[in-house]
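Onboarding guide, step 5: your first structure request.
Type a short instruction followed by the sequence, for example:

Predict the 3D structure of this protein.
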Amino acid sequence: MNRRPRIAFFGSSLVSAYWNGAATYYRGIIRALHQRGYRVTFYEPDAYDRQAHRDIPDPPWAEVVVYPNQETAVAEALAQARGADLIVKASGVGVFDAFLEEAVLEMRGPNTEVVFWDVDAAATLHRVHQNPDDPFRFLIPRYDLVLTYGGGDPVVKAYRSLGARACVPIYNALDPETHHPVPPDPRFEGDLAFLGNRLPDREARVEQFFFQAAKALPEARFLLAGNGWGDKGMPGNIRSVGHLYTRDHNAFNCTPRAVLNITRESMARTGFSPATRVFEAAGAAACLITDAWEGIALFLTPGEEVLVAQDGAEVAEHLRALTSERARTIGEAARRRILAEHTYAHRAAQLEALLEGREAVQMGRAHE
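The system replies with structure tokens like these:
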């Protein structure tokens, strides 16, 4: 594009990660786009008590518009966004999603493209496949482009089968300015740590990979962070610390001997979507143990840059054999790989090339 577009982005929250796992993804992508000269306005609702649990103030690299949780306020935000070069409706805003999904399409025009950016494609695709009358199903073909934060070919094929004009994964990545090595913090000392909110399609896999490993290693110390676990029965060697603010992510990743990633069941079933936590942990040079998922070698080399486990028993085996020296070696190798290939600067360049390519195609068609 000859001039940098103005982007209007409707998402869950840019400033709060409270019950909002996509926050660091949004921040990384939008900050990197800003560094390439784009102007981004992020519209988010005042919902789910997120504004009371802000992680960051309004950033200098985006304008943040917080609108009241009312339909009239949503309409006002849409009116303000009109005329942007690119309008993005992200999945999972949390309130008025159906209204937004249809309303943004009315803003398409000769100089305005409208994109649906799915940050939980597994859930979206499961929903529309379960309900053939889901209103969003009929809107998919009207979007200029569908972006996802992962999923690989299975998700791309699924969206194309639903009529999407194009579907392109923009994977999670690392923002090295926010996630990097820091000194250990005594609050997070332990042998294995896991960070994730308690969700219906995550809980059973946490029991399988994390709780079972804790039962197999009663002498080891396990650390659990995230919302919703307070009333969950768990082995006595697991310490739950509740919601973890993003300011503590680096210390949480750097302090324990290893960090565990567990893919949600829906994501494991519907393509591969490496979680934000994979890149955040690698960026902090943490030794990462992950459940097995298709495509991991595209991001980290098993056995050298990450340890892969099929179940909780293999997690425990890895932990038994893991010396502090080997943990450091794996973590440092992971950090080098991610910095070289998987930062948000890489993702923003990919997105810019995609948008420029689409504009070139459209200009060519206009002159046919």
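Each response can be followed by summary notes, for example: Residues 6-173+344-366 form a domain with the Rossmann fold fold (CATH 3.40.50.2000).
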